[in-house]
Amino acid sequence: MLALSHYNSSSSPLLHRSSNDSGGKVEARVAVEGVSQQGNLTLLQPTTSGVIVVILSMTLGIISNIVALFILANAYSQQRRRNKATFLLFASSLVFTDFIGHVIPGALVLRLYLSGGVHPDDFNSSDGMCQFLGGSMVFFGLCPLFMGCAMAAERCLGVTKPLLHSSLVTKTRTKVCLSAIWLAALCVALLPCFQLGSYAYQDPGTWCFIKVLSDTQEVDVAFVVLFSGLGMASLAVALVCNTISGLTLVLARLRRRPGSHHSAKSHDIEMVVQLVGIMVTSCICWSPLLIFGLMSAIRSYTGSIAEDLSSYKTLMVMAVRLATWNQILDPWVYILLRRTVLRKIYLIAKCQRGNIIGRWEPTSFPSSEKHQVNQV
């Protein structure tokens, strides 16, 4: 979980009032304004409310992922359908990855947050912590997108070609696929170690990401293009596969004869609904960072970002905050979109609808014809 600091400028030592004369006040104000214009205002402290928000967000994310892992582990141990077991294995790996991706980067960001962040002059630099934090962001950002894409492709094959799916998809091959996903994301995250891109501290100095706002080189642009391209391609493939799966299930339900057995299809519907929820959550949470990061790198490399630098810094901060919510919302997608939960919601809605209709039943309002018959 990444949370960015909110600073309180009143705690800056540059604002000491050691003199009561007006000349001293004017000089102090001019000095602060001059340093601020040069972007060198330092030693700013984060607010206490910001720290509390960070801790509460991390707590919410950890609890959400632990609850989802418990439910998934219980469902996986009781599952007898092989296609459902494969889906649960993917979902468990996704939630576990979100959990680790929430704890490790979040702990590093919280440490930077409590220490007040790095000096603004060091925003374009990188040390060991920044390298690890930036690599963690890339790795734990790509993994859920890759897994969502793989889950959508697996379900699309299971819905459209069930016989081929039963012969190709096994637990062993699923584990190999998950290992390949983690390895691919790790290879991308480690590219800066081979001078193929670079990580740098980002404003306000409490998180690290690919260098996209200043001193951007060709390798940085290529790195961002690779990261954003892989992320958006994963979302696009997931969208296509989920659309095909959904349309196939709708057509199958329309063609189903009354009274036929459809429990297998209900399992497929449940899994596709959950995949659509995961895909929508990923699109909302990750698209801004993928797009703004790419735009910032290109404009920085071409030298046209200077006039809008503050706007792009704000957009990047908002985008990374939104991306971190993906790790909190993913487990709730599975928790709330399970068939048992949806059935209870349906029954409650049906019961409420029945109560409303019951108030307006014809028996409650005898017609004039019935009244006349009773009189006769």
UniProtKB/TrEMBL annotation:
Keywords for the protein's UniProt record, in alphabetical order: Cell membrane, G-protein coupled receptor, Glycoprotein, Membrane, Receptor, Transducer, Transmembrane, Transmembrane helix
Entries under InterPro entries matching the protein: GPCR_Rhodpsn, GPCR_Rhodpsn_7TM, Prostanoid_rcpt, Thbox_rcpt
Main location: membrane
Bilayer disposition of the protein: Multi-pass membrane protein
Region annotation (Disordered) ranges: 1-22
Keyword Glycoprotein assigned: yes
Any Pfam family the entry gives: 7tm_1
Every G-protein coupled receptors family 1 profile domain range: 64-334
Family designation: Belongs to the G-protein coupled receptor 1 family.
Record protein name field: Thromboxane A2 receptor
